[in-house]
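Hi Prof. W.,

I finally got the Glyoxylate/hydroxypyruvate reductase A prediction working! I wasn't sure whether to trim anything, so I left the full sequence exactly as given:
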Amino acid sequence: MSILFYCEGDDGQLLQTFRHRLPDHVIIDWSCERTEADPSDITAAIVWMPPVDFFDNTPRLQTVYAFSAGVDHLLLHTGLPSQATIVRLRDAGMAQQMAEYALYGVLHFQRQMGLLRSAQRQKHWAQDDIKAISAAHVRIGILGAGALGLQVAERMALNNYPVTCWSRSARINEKVRCVNGEQALGDFLNSSDVLICLLPLTDATTGILNAGLFDQLPQGAFLINPGRGAHLVEQDLLDALESGRLSGALLDVFSLEPLPEEHPFWHHNDIIITPHVAAQSLVDESVDQVIESIRTIERGELPDGVVDTQRGY
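And this is what came out:
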């Protein structure tokens, strides 16, 4: 049985790593070896951003191992075989990075760094303008209670911030408060001075960061979006900043990447832009997880990270 391989941007090192770590498997490089392979032997694939014809002529494909935590690029792929099971990365070193990124954004809001930066540009000594705010009075709301969301929440709690995670279905965590369902969303938003979006991208969450949601946040709330660019209605964010509904935003992901040079976000004083670097998969940890999943399935067991294609994660 063979594994079909394609990871966009790989210079060959990742492919060689898998071949070294899986010597008992035939790993086919889709870019240059697919025409020589027997389609009936291909039962699995390791992929990141596969081309439109990647899944052509794979009638026996059973398992797709996503070299990423997000799988929206796979679920939208028109060639994905309906019978294939998708297994995604669960963390791969991303949770620690995401917690650090989110903590930076929260501190930016709490310590009023936007105001200080503005004062610096005006050469104004703003000492008398700044009022100290304790962490205990900065309420953190996290949209999403998956592996990343919960670990970010735990980091916030360790730094003495009151934190609540919201998800569509129930989650239980002994260290942080979790709420769920549409009936809890309004109160959750009303009490989120900083809102962090770590939801998966699905039909239900596309455009969730919109004017209606912003209007339910406290006046002057701060938005952090390191999840998916399509979660955000960009004009609604600009309008919320203009009206003062939001005081600022830290954005790592965008509907179109790289962000076009003419985009208004580049020059907005209340928006901090980072180029999709909040949490990058660590190669060694990612390879370990994929191999662990392959071995688990070969033992006839179900690995962690199996995607519910109806939910989208």
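Residues 2-92+281-299 form a domain with the Rossmann fold fold (CATH 3.40.50.720). Does that look reasonable to you?

Thanks,
D.
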